[in-house]
Structure formats: structure tokens, C-alpha cells
Task: structure prediction
Amino acid sequence: MKHSIQKEIIVVLALELIAVIAACALVTYRNSYSSALKSSRDDSRNAARVAGAIISEYGLDTVTDPENKELYGKIRRRLRSICKGFELDYLYVYTIEGNDECHYIMAVASKDENDRIAAERLGLGTIRDCHPLHAQEQAAIKGEISDELFILRNEFGGDMTWIVPFFDNNGKARALIGADDALYLYNAGITRHFFVALIPISLLIFIAHMVLFFIIHRRIVTPVKTIANHMRTFDPSHEEEPLQVNSQDEMRSIAEAFEKMSRDIHLYIENIASITSEREQSRAQLDVARKIQYGMVPASFSENRNGVDVSALMQPAKEVGGDFYDAFTLENGNYCAMIGDISGKGVGGALFMALTKSILRDRMKQIMDPAAVLNKVNDDLCAQNPEGMFATVFIVVIDPMTGRVQYANAGHNAPLLISGGEVSLLNPEPGIALGLFEDAGIRNGNLTLKKGEGFLLYTDGVTEAVNTEKAFYGAERLLSLLKNNTPKESSAAANSVKNSVEEFFAGCEQFDDITVLSLFYRGEDSELELKPSLDEFKTVRESVLELCAGSGSAKKALLACEEAFVNIVSYSGASYIKFSCSAGGGVLSVTLKDNGMRFDPFAGESSAEKDFESFDKGGMGISLIKQIAEKTEWRFENENNVLTLTFKI
Amino acid sequence: MAVEKITNGTEAVLKVSGWLDTQSSPELEKAVAELDGNTETLVFDFEKLEYISSAGLRQIVAAHKKMNGKLTLRNVQSDIMSVLSMAGFDKRLHIEA
Result:
């Protein structure tokens, strides 16, 4: 603290105390002075008058008669006793004659020494030059009295002289009577009067100031310090002790204000803490939801088989979004791909998405007809959709043997059709979003793809992406992107769209999930029917080597194919092996179908655990296939084992 | 596939070239079976081997057993080596790269 109010108050009070006492002293001094002057004047004049009365008893002429020495001595003694009685230094009688000459008649003094000298030097008949006469003397000559101060100073300290006229029986001023009051006595009178008056006043003022100081200290300084200490040690995480300010004044209201403030802060912080922990909790739950969602809808997906080449990419927005896609083979050998968008985001949207996606997949596997599935799922969702959420979905089903496509739309964006070297917007029946109204009446559309033709399905996250200039990406931009550089395979199509959209909105927030799914028809007419004989493997070898020409991993892929082929030949008892393979997008896909006994080569435990010494009896093949192939899939379909091996090349 | 045999005292070297697959592996089996009784150590020289399948791997294990472990693989190319590794042979056989 740079300044202390307490110190400042002490200094101000002290200065004020000094000033007040000084003022009192001044006033007192003036009082004392005038009172001492008055007392000196009155006493001295009274003494002079008494002396005059004594002389009048005898008459001035009798007293001044040199013959009456005895009387003179008697009067002189009486005057001296008056002089002593009034505590005067000197008392003397004289006349002014001629040219301001003082003709002394009699002079007495209180002190013996002075009296002796007075008798000698100022005895009857002594003449002194008194020029100029003092105002008192001039007045006295005229029988008047003057208040003009008449101070004689000498080596003894000086006297204050008071002169009164002496009147004879006729009332005529005949002589002057002087009374000398000793100055030191007069001064002592002032001093005594001064201190007697000043000390009690000063004490009173001093005490008043001390009382004032203690009141200020007790009522202001101490509570301020208490409150300041309390504020300094204020810890918002703890409940505050009540403030110990025992007054009912403004300090109490400051203390109460502080107590209220600290309670409020305490409550506020508790609120913040609980809100924060709730927020953390819900963020953690949201993270879990997001992980589950990503598990259901992976960020990227690619498959190349059964004459179909499929790729999907999803770039989720910050929140849990509502886009989804799915792609799988149906039991009748057809391939199904779908894309969808849920109204609303967050956990609710994610749950609805999970529900919708699961039901769609299940129904699709059962019913295998896209429009029928959408209608059925719509009824399911309408029956259990209290939040009124809805989903737009587009489903494509393709026959990998013929390229025939069935599609159905439930209110989703029209996909792009890449066909005959042209890119166009497919114009499906719009349908209606799932979950809104029963009896949606969605109908299938049909078309046939030639080899190398395909679709691009996308969600509105693509067309409604917004750039820094608040412009939409739009379907036109999407069309011209693919027209300028018409893709030949699914992964190129999906990637180019995703990259273009991301470039478009760079620097802005991504508001919605961006999902792209592309599907190309490759055809399955490379399927060759082989006899179950080791000799026939050369056909497989030639096809694979041709497709993988120049790839370093061709021989390994071939090794896996040989192991699979040899296993079928050796163990299945099949009467034919149907072989097909395709390559694209850095992926080789090989399918072997046989009508031998049902056997899932990947169901058993890994043979890598087998003993080295027993390897001459076989059993390494499946382990090698698993190690080499990127993906292995076996299914039993139409009484055929269908083994699909996918390799990176 | 072709197998060329070089005998060097009690050591026999079989130079295997081409594709050692299901169809060709019996030739190697035959060549190993025809080794004479004095042969104490066997070397498969794979310098010119282009391809090996599990049938070929089986012949290697059979030869390893027959020679009581005195089998060495020599000049193994990286493609072949990676197949041997996948099967775990690199841990059990004496292989000279």
C-alpha cells in the first residue's frame, strides 16, 4: 500500500490540532492581555486615588509645608503602605510647573532599597525636566484621564505608569499622582491568565481529536482492513465465512455486498464446474457415437469383384452427421449399393441412421428388390419414428452378369450416370423420403450398363458445400467436373469428386457430411469353365499374368490362386471350376466357383501353427493365400463354393 | 522346370530353374530320390528359380527330412525368399541368399 488512510488521518488531525490550539492561544493571549491591562490600570488608579484621598485629608498645602516634617513623614508611610498593599513599585505625587518641569512632592516605593532611593532623589522640591510630557500627564493637568500606555523602562525591567490628577477641595487639578506597576508582574499576570485559560481548552480539543481518531479507526479503518483481508484470501472454491464486521453502518453494507458477491461467485463457479463436467460427459458420449458411426460407415471403401467395381468415400462434418452408404452382394449374385442422408445430425441422427441402415441392409438381403425394400422400410420407419426424422435413400442393384440395373429413389439427390462416354444426371422418379408418410409408392427404374459404365451417387453435402463467397458447389459444377475428365473406374470418380469439393470449400467450415459412392460395371464374361485338373491351371496362370502384366506382385497373386485351385482339384470332388478375374484401380480380383462339396477354406484355424516337419504332407496353401491376398471371401451360392480373392497390384 | 545335378564328393548340388509348382514338383522329388547313398549333404541352388508354390515347399521339407537336416538353400532370389518367409522356412532351414 502506497498510502495509508490511517496515517493521513493522523497527520491531518495533528495539523488541525496544532492550528486549533494556536488559534485558541491567540485569542486567549489577547484576552489575557486586555484583562491584565485592565486590572493593572484599575488597581493602579485606585491606589493613586486612595493616595490622593489621604493627601486631601490634610490638604496639599499642609503636606508641602516644609515645617510639617512630621506630617510629611506620616503621610509618606501611609502612601508606602498603600504602595505595598496594591503591589505597586512606586507611588509618587508631583506637579508640572513652567516649561514641563516636574516638581516632586513625595515618592514612595514598595521595596526598602527603592524607597530609600526615592526618598533621596524624588523628595519634596526635587525638580526634573519632564519634557515632553506624556499624554497621561497632559490629560491629568487638565483633570482628565488618558488610557495611553506609559511604560518606563529601566535596568530593573521597567514599570507601567498610570497617572491620575489630584483635585483640591475646590475640584481643581492641583497635582498628578503616579502609580508604577512593575512590568514583570504585569507580564506574569498575562502569562498566568494565558495558561490558566489555554491549558484546559487545549486538553479538551486534544481529547476531542483523540476521540474522533478512535471513532474513525474503529468504524472505518478497522472494518476496511478486515474486508480487505477477507477479499485477499477469497477462495471461490470454498464457501465463505461470514465477515466479522460488528457495525450497522455503511461498512456493514459493504461487508454484506461482498458476502453476497462471494456467495454468487461461489454458486457461479459450482454451476460452471457442473456444466463443464456435463459437457465433458456428453462430448465423450458423442465421441463414442461417432466411433460407432464410423465403424458402420467407414471413411473409405473399395471393392472390385463379381464384375462390379465400387468405391465410396465419406468425409464427416464435425458433428455426428447423418450420411451413410452400403454395398454388398445379394444371394442371387446381384450387387447392391445404396447411399442415404438422415435429416438432422447429432446423436439422434446417428441412431436413426444406424436403424435405417440396418433395416435397409436386412430387407435388401431378404427381398432384393430396391423399390419394394424402400416401401417396406418406409412403413417400418413410420411405425417407430416418434421424432419425425426422415431419410433420403437411393438404391442401385446391378446384375454383374448382364449389367442390368434396377434402382429406386426415396427423395434422394439424382445420381450421375456415366454412360457411353457421357456424364448426365439420371432422372429417376423423385420418390419420397423414408419415415414421413406411409404408402410411399416408390417404384423401380431400370437401365442397362455396358462394360465400363457406371454411377456416381452422392449426398447433398457435395452439392450444398459452401465456399468463402457463400456459393454452393451445385450439381452443374459436379457434372462439368466429371464431363471434363470422365472417370473410368470407381475410385477415380469418388476421389476426384471428394477432392474437388474439399478444394471448393477450403477455408470454410464443413457443415454437412460429404459422401460419394461410385459403381462401375465390369461384366463377368471372363468367366471360364475349367475341368478340375492341374493341367487347367495354366489358363488361370495366363489370365492372371496378362491382367497383372508388369506388376511385381503378380507371381505372389498367382501363387495364392494356384494354392486355391490345387485345393479344389485335390479335395472338392467338383466336376467343374468356373474362373473369372478382373483388374482395376490397383486391385486384382479372382473368383473361383466350383460345384464340389461345401467347404469354407477360411473357417478352420490357421495352419501356420502346424509343425514344420509335417509340411511335406501339405497344409501350407491356405496360410499362404491368407498372407498374400488383400481380402479373401468365401460364400456358398447356388450350390457353388464361390471363392473371391482380392490382391493389390 | 529343369533340375541339373552336380556331385562334388559327398555333397550334391541340385540347380533348380524355372517354375517349381504343383505340376513340376514331382521332378524335383524324383531327382532327390535318385541321389546316391554316398551323398551326405544336399544343396538346392535356386539362382534361376522363378516361382515356387506350396508343392515345391513340400519337396523342400521332404528333402530336409531325408538328409536329416543337412540341406542348404543357395542363391535364393528375393521373390522366392518372401514365400519361404511366409511359410516360416527361413527360421528352420539353412539358407544362403
